[in-house]
Amino acid sequence: MNKLTYFPGCSAHGTSEEFDHTLKLVMKSLDVQMEEIPDWNCCGATSAHVMTENLALALPMRNLVLAEKLENKTMGIACASCYSRMKSTKKHLDENPELARKINSTVIDEGEYKGIIDIKSMLQYCVEEIGLETIKSKVTRSLSGLKIACYYGCLLTRPKDVTHFDSPEYPMSMDYLMEALGAKAVEFDYKTECCGASFSISDTEIVESLSGKILEVAKESGAHLIVVACPLCQSNLDMRQPDIEKHTGKKFDLPIMYFTQLMALAFGFPEKELKLPKHIVPVEAALKHIGEVIPEAEKVKKTKKAVEAESEVE
Amino acid sequence: MARVGVFVCFCGANIADFVDVPAVVQEAKKIKEVKVAVEYKYMCSDPGQGMIRDAIVQNRLTSVVVAACSPRMHEKTFRKALLDAGLNPYMLEIANIREHSSWVHQKDKKAATEKASDLVRMAVAKSIANEQLHEISVPVTKRALVIGGGIAGIQAALDIADAHIPVTLVEKSPSIGGRMAQLDETFPTLDCSQCILTPKMVDVASHPYIELIPYSEVIELDGYVGNYKAKIKKKASYVDFSSCTGCGACTQKCPVKVPNEFNMNIDKRKAIYTPFPQAVPNKPVIDAEHCTMLLKGKCGICAKFCEKGSINFKMVDEVIEREIGAVVIATGYDLWDPKPYEEYGVGRYKDIITSLEFERMVSASGPTNGVPVRPSDGKVPKNVVFIKCIGSRDEAKGIEYCSKICCMYTAKHAILLHHKVHDSHAYIFYMDIRAAGKGYEEFVKRAQVETAATYLRGRVSKIYKKGDKLMVRGEDAQIGQVVEVESDLVVLATAVIAPKDNPALARLLGVSYDKYGYMSEAHPKLRPVETAKAGIFLAGCTQAPKDIPDTVAQASACAAKVCGLFAGDTLKKDPMISTINNEFCSGCQNCVKVCPYQAIVTEEIPLGHGSKELRTVAKINEGVCQGCGSCVAICRSMAISLAGFTDPQIINEIVAI
Amino acid sequence: MITLGLLEKNTFLEAVNKKSGANVLECYQCGKCVSTCPVSGYMDFPPREVMQMIKLGLKEETYMANSMWFCLTCSACSGRCPREIDIPAVMEAVRHLAIEENYRSENKKVKDIRKFHDIFLDMIKRYGRNYELRMMAEFNIRTRNLFKDMHLAPKALLKGKIPIGHESTKSGKAIRKMYKLVDKLEKANK
In angstroms, what separates the C-alpha of B343 from chain A's closest C-alpha? Predict the structure, then answer.
């Protein structure tokens, strides 16, 4: 039984409830005991670091201190944005001990910061700590027939000196994870292009433009759905999709799912556990492709590099 | 009784601004042995030297101290002045009051002046213990070894051979010609590369003074300037060159197909092959790594069809030795693998090729009959995007330098593309256009005006696929717009890099190389063709990226150096080397182990006069010793002495302060 | 037209370098950041030009530009920069300096963005965690765009996409104390 400290993030019990719920289900199947940090606070997301220097460090600091109290080696974070803030803060503070002490003093009631916990995104944890072989062994319902565009967004693999995970330009971890579930991951050139992130509310036009392009390229690559690992990306691509369709005149019909939802499905959990009604763009039609046979001609021959990288990841 | 002359230089303002020169002269006069002490503005000038000469004669000086700049500047000059005045040139000591005082203590004139006086005092004390030394003569073998048979090696070999000096030219691949043989046309004249190269290749093959050893590598080099011994491994070609007529029947019949490295792996060659039609020598070799007969003992079709019976599967590698006086390193360059540019999809998209691949395609004798084609579907491209600075000038990718030739050959590619595909259009993404040679700027203008190539200033950020086209995105900074070019083919001007075997070869030869693997020149400004090791010279891209005119010039320069080295019957050597006093030598051989030049060996000498019993002592090879002093330091018996830095000399210096 | 040669010292460049930890002088204007940046088309001056402006010491123009407010901190540019300059850090440094020195752009989009961030940070101060619905409502009110995203409301609220209620940390006191202590820290640094 592996123990993992878990930071859910603000959207976990709301906007991205389906992410949080299916994550907990699949982690249980994979023998991982998740310990949610008691009384965690918002990491500050974009606004804190955009507007402030010290508050942007203090908000994650409180969570780090609380997390270290749980005494697990690793903290897993579902939301890519929270992951980026927490890990960047930790890196900055570990490199500037004097500053760390000052920031710690603003939350000294919670405890002293020791800098001992390792932070991974949940995707990273699945691929690096649990491993694709283990995940493959839990699959009872293969997702074969499903063509998926894996969208990583900006923060799972960038900046490279913070995440130390996969490639910042053309990562393949989620692709290999989907293939371990039996699905086919299509070649997708826009897998790390920004969706518009926090401009969702303050400048929706930007999100429509950026997310629109991602949807367009995903559609052209022949995907049935897009799989993501970040609540903000999911919201931008899903909730804003009808508006994008209206303003561009293009039709996408691309549901946006979390990788944990697909894992839960493949592990044999019933569809109602996936909380599909929460999706703005309906998912059911895409899932009907499961079980279809992909014609030989369409099967993309993996480049030698991909095969080599594959064997590295596993 | 020692009679020392002290000459203190102002060096213009270099010394005088921070050191009180007259004060130093006055201090020097106080030393008992100093018979004359003067100052002068520029001691190295003719009048300055004249001053030294006259003073030596008039004052019957026994040694001279010049307080001036570093001995690396003018030691030779002043030694000659001593010689001209009839004094042994090694009775000179230089006190470096510029680099060691004036230049490093600019904030405290008083302290700097005191230090300068100290340095002078030390030099005077040392010079009193100086011994008269004489240059050593070593014999010289008048044969040159040229490593590498590209245009650099070919030119160096021809120039040396034309001076009636025998040359051994060793080339790793089956034929000479190197990179130039792979080029289609050369800038700025658009000469057909092979047409201007092959006459030189033929000259090499037929020159009475050149011994061409193809398909071979240098595996060992011992010795010192004028007296090297080289071991060369001739790789087994499995073809007897003396009987082979080069008819090509074997190549036709061979069933094995292997990626053709001469054509940048665009097409295939056979396991028995000549690299290209104009190869010199034009005899095939068998690639042992892919020949079925050599690997598994099956096939042998080539031997069956060879009318002369020249194929011999039992051939083995052969090691030969040559005595050499000088070496020219001309190993050329490699091209960087652009795989790290993940943002361009290198390795994922077939229609992204390197500049040398493009060059092979547009070559008339190349794998695609002189027309560029898309690797994915074989169609002729209309929109071709050329991207410069791939790897070059990109610290994130590990290469800081500029590769020098890409701006010019990209302009050339634009012109060649225009010639081969009339309705094509070239788009060139660049950061700068470097066209500094003769006729180069005019050539770039020609590319821009004649072909209407679109030059876009901005590094490409991403390449992605749209249907069967490649979308190339970059900023055009001149109009401040992000542009995307819908292209059929993308050509990457990848960085020039040192051959990957350079470091190993450098260590073998005993020369240094830089962090990129380029061979190190002795001085980047004034000694660009010499290495720090006497007798070993550099020509071409092995030292740094350069174009053909500069390569040929550097190769001829090497030849001039070699001829200069071989001009006399002997070579003169600096006498400041170590000698061993056998009386004290215990034969512990620590010096043998510590000598970086392997200049010390052991010898057996009789225990005493007329004794039959022998004992081991160390013996220093005068010719190899560079006078570094490592052996002196490590000798526990104090048996070794370094001329010019003997114990009495050093102790005098120490006592003086 | 800009006249140069008037500054004795480029204190702006020094301040940006110090705050960001990068060295703007290393930028050789290759433009890779501009075509990488997903929002460079929205900026008055794309990243490459901001670098040049800092090198020229054009403090006012840089502070009043909208460039740093559009930066998504997606780090795509710094990942590709051949000189490995931390461009998001430079953008952030300019932004923080502008805030510290009280420069406020009149550009409506920039004002809206600033309002959004102020509201977000206020939410956290109150509740310790984000309260999306209230945040969106306040944003609409303060930007005088009451009906923005209203068309999404029925579907989103019904499906629970945007939760109606909110969660808070139990220790609201701890959060408010943190805010206060951070404030003190900032004042002490000045």
Answer: 6
